[in-house]
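Today's session is about reading a structure prediction critically. Students often jump straight to the picture, but the first step is always the sequence itself: look for stretches that repeat, for charged clusters, for runs of hydrophobic residues. Only then move on to the predicted structure, which in these notes is written as discrete structure tokens rather than atom positions. Here is the chain we will use throughout the hour.
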Amino acid sequence: MRLVVDLNKCQGYAQCAFLAPDVFAMHGEESLIYNPRADEGQRERLARAVAACPVQAITADGLDGMGGSTASAPEASDAR
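Below is the predicted structure for this chain, in token form.
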């Protein structure tokens, strides 16, 4: 599973570090460090961390149900 954090967008809210501390950590008060190749055992925690990012700075490829999504929630499709 591949993670990318747009460090230009990241505001240091640290929601990801609280939800997936084995993958994300704060270095100082504002700098995020992370493992871009997260372990498959972290899948559920990563999905929560991606969804919790208030500025949608995290992209995760390989999360089931997330479709390689960013932190935004999946949009509902029109049912007709």
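Discussion point for the tutorial: Helices lie at 15-19, 43-52.
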